[in-house]
Write a structure and sequence with these properties.
alpha+beta, Jelly Rolls, Arc Repressor Mutant, subunit A, 6-stranded antiparallel sheet, about 230 residues, 2 domains, 9 helices, 4-stranded antiparallel sheet
Length: about 230
């Protein structure tokens, strides 16, 4: 297993460890279970007992629920330095979603008893986890309102901008969403169909707002996309 110190830069940006000195990070991480998974593997599955809270050290997780017909509804992407499953673990619930790896992923997980001890030893952890939970609730409320009140083009635009903000990387062509994001993934994330997303993205490519290909999307004119999503 890799040395936790190699993730010091990532962890220094983590909301989970805000207010905790870097020399304490190794102790906190060392008391969790380290897991490395290849692309497309399941970290935890919807309906299983929620045993551990995880932080992503490397890579990205896709959280999704399955409809009765087996269709995915993507709830969120969990990026480097972000937590997942805290509420389910503390409430002794089942995992409400499935967590699948996007590329190679490395995480550390703590069970409930261990996390309680860490929260008593490091007071900022409790505050940081509360802030993270509030942020997730706000995000879900925002997406619910988008589904209820906005046209599909605005939903797709806002979703691309949200993902770009979380996972964008500047390139000569614009801001690249720095992981494989297929049109089907975007349809599952925005609650629409592959046909609709393909039509919308094709139109935006013609207007010069984006470039796409091989499950990669670059936002070439983010200002235009913001204006459209906010005012459309």
């Amino acid at each position: 297993m890799s040395d936790p110190t190699q993730f010091s830069d990532t962890l220094s940006r983590s909301e989970f460890l805000a207010g905790i000195s870097k020399h304490e990070h190794t102790n906190i991480l060392g008391r969790g279970k380290r897991i490395k998974l290849n692309k497309g593997k399941i970290l935890f599955r919807e309906g299983d007992p929620a045993i551990r809270i995880y932080i992503v050290l490397k890579g990205r997780l896709k959280l999704y629920k399955l409809h009765e017909q087996g269709k995915e509804a993507i709830i969120r992407y969990i990026n480097c330095d972000e937590l997942t499953a805290a509420i389910a673990v503390f409430k002794n619930k089942a995992y409400p979603v499935t967590a699948e790896t996007v590329g190679e992923v490395e995480v550390i997980g703590w069970d409930k008893a261990t996390m309680h001890k860490l929260m008593l030893e490091y007071a900022p952890i409790a505050i940081n986890m509360l802030n993270a939970a509030i942020s997730r609730i706000d995000d879900l409320q925002t997406r619910y309102l988008e589904l209820c009140t906005e046209q599909v083009e605005q939903r797709v635009g806002r979703s691309l901008l949200r993902i770009m903000k979380q996972s964008g990387r500047k390139t000569k062509d614009g801001i690249l969403i720095d992981f494989k994001l297929s049109r089907q993934d975007l349809a599952d994330y925005t609650g629409t169909t592959l046909f609709t997303v393909s039509r919308i993205l094709s139109n935006w490519e013609k207007t010069g707002w984006i470039k796409s290909g091989r499950e990669r999307i670059t936002i070439t004119d983010p200002h235009a996309l913001v204006s459209f999503s906010e005012l459309g």
